[in-house]
Amino acid sequence: NETLYANRSAVRAKLGKLAEALSDADKCIEPKPEWVRGHTRRAQALQSLGRLEEAEAAVEQALQRDGNDAMSQQVAESISRQLAADQGPVPEDALLSLVGMFNEPALWEV
Length: 110
Description:
69% of the residues lie in helices and 0% in strands. By secondary structure, it is an all-alpha fold.
């Protein structure tokens, strides 16, 4: 189910398995494309992979579904800052910090 894939996406991202995290995020969107969390997980995985334009589009999908979702807003701000800085792929030390986002309790709420 989509919750399993969303949670596994977060775990895989935390473990640095970014391609697998993206795959799981995509799988949680397939059965329930209106689910905000799936699009947010996809945006996080894409951002971690340095695919910022795609990440921005994914988080916009989440915000179109619920513009008040705090997690989506946080991810959108992070992507915007990174795009503004034109950093390209996330540097290794920043990646560890980004992966730390998955320790936020709000990320595990369904």
